[in-house]
C-alpha cells in the first residue's frame, strides 16, 4: 500500500474541517438564482448551502424570533436596514445584490398584448399578486394597479400568494389567468418562458432594491456573499433578469 506524504495527510485532515454550512433565508423571487449560485459556490468552496425560501416579511419575522440563519437575501432594503439598525447583523455587511423587475405574465400566448388590453378590459377570471403586506413584489403590483385606476375594480378577481413563489404557481398551474411575478421567474439566459408578458416600466413602481445582510460572522457566510458580488456571481444574477448596477 503506498504511503501518503505528511502534506497529503494534512490536506486530507484539514479539508473537511474547513468546509461548513451556510444557512440562507432568501426571498422567493430569488430562489432559482440562489439555487444556481449555490451549486457553483459549493463546487468552488466545498461549503454547503442550506436554503429556506419565503416572503421577505415572514423571513424577517423568523429572524427576529431567533431562526438560525447566517445570511438574509431580502426582496427589499427596508428589512435589512431594520436589522442593521437593531444591531442584528455583522457590521458593514448590508449591500444591494440585485434590482428586481416586475412582469405581468400568463402561460397563454395570446392573453397579454403590448397595450395591456386584458387589464383595461378586465377580460379574465383571476389575477394573481403576492401579498403586498409581506412581499415587495406584491407591493409593486399594487402600485401599478393603483396607478392604472384598477386596484378597486379588480379586488374581487385577485388571488394573493403568500409570497411571489406561490403567486407564480397560481399562474403556472392556471388557477389564475395571469399574474404579476418577478421577471426572474419567467426569464433565464436571455429568454422569457412560453406564454405572453408585459415587462412593467420601471417608472410605474418604486424600485425593488434587493439587499443582503450577514447575520452570523462565519467564514462560509462571508465567502458566499463575496461570491454573489464576484464577476461569476453577478453574471448569474444578470442571467435571471436582474439589474446589478447598484450591486457593483
From TrEMBL:
Molybdate binds at residues 56, 164. Transmembrane segments: none annotated. Gene3D superfamilies: Periplasmic binding protein-like II (3.40.190.10). It comes from the Bacteria. Residues 1-19 form the signal peptide. One of its GO terms (molecular function) is metal ion binding. Belongs to the bacterial solute-binding protein ModA family. This is Molybdate ABC transporter substrate-binding protein. It comes from Oceanimonas doudoroffii. The gene is modA.
Amino acid at each position: 500500500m503506498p504511503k501518503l506524504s505528511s502534506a497529503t495527510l494534512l490536506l486530507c485532515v484539514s479539508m473537511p474541517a474547513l468546509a461548513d454550512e451556510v444557512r440562507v433565508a432568501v426571498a422567493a423571487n430569488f430562489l432559482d438564482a440562489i439555487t444556481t449560485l449555490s451549486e457553483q459556490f459549493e463546487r468552488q468552496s466545498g461549503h454547503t448551502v442550506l436554503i429556506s425560501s419565503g416572503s421577505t416579511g415572514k423571513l424577517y419575522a423568523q429572524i427576529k424570533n431567533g431562526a438560525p440563519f447566517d445570511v438574509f437575501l431580502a426582496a427589499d432594503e427596508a428589512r435589512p436596514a431594520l436589522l442593521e439598525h437593531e444591531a442584528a447583523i455583522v457590521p458593514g455587511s448590508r449591500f444591494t445584490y440585485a434590482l428586481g423587475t416586475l412582469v405581468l405574465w400568463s402561460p397563454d400566448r395570446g392573453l397579454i398584448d403590448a397595450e395591456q388590453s386584458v387589464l383595461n378590459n378586465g377580460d379574465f377570471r383571476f389575477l394573481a399578486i403576492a401579498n403586498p403586506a409581506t412581499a415587495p413584489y406584491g407591493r409593486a403590483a399594487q402600485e401599478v394597479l393603483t396607478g392604472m385606476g384598477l386596484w378597486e375594480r379588480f379586488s374581487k378577481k385577485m388571488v394573493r400568494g403568500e409570497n411571489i413563489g406561490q403567486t407564480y404557481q397560481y399562474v403556472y398551474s392556471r388557477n389564475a389567468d395571469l399574474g404579476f411575478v418577478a421577471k426572474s421567474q419567467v426569464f433565464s439566459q436571455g429568454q422569457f418562458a412560453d406564454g405572453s408578458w408585459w415587462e412593467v416600466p420601471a417608472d410605474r413602481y418604486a424600485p425593488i432594491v434587493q439587499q443582503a445582510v450577514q447575520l452570523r460572522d462565519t467564514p462560509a457566510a462571508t465567502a458566499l456573499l463575496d461570491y454573489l458580488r464576484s464577476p461569476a456571481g453577478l453574471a448569474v444574477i444578470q442571467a435571471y433578469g436582474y439589474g446589478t448596477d447598484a450591486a457593483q
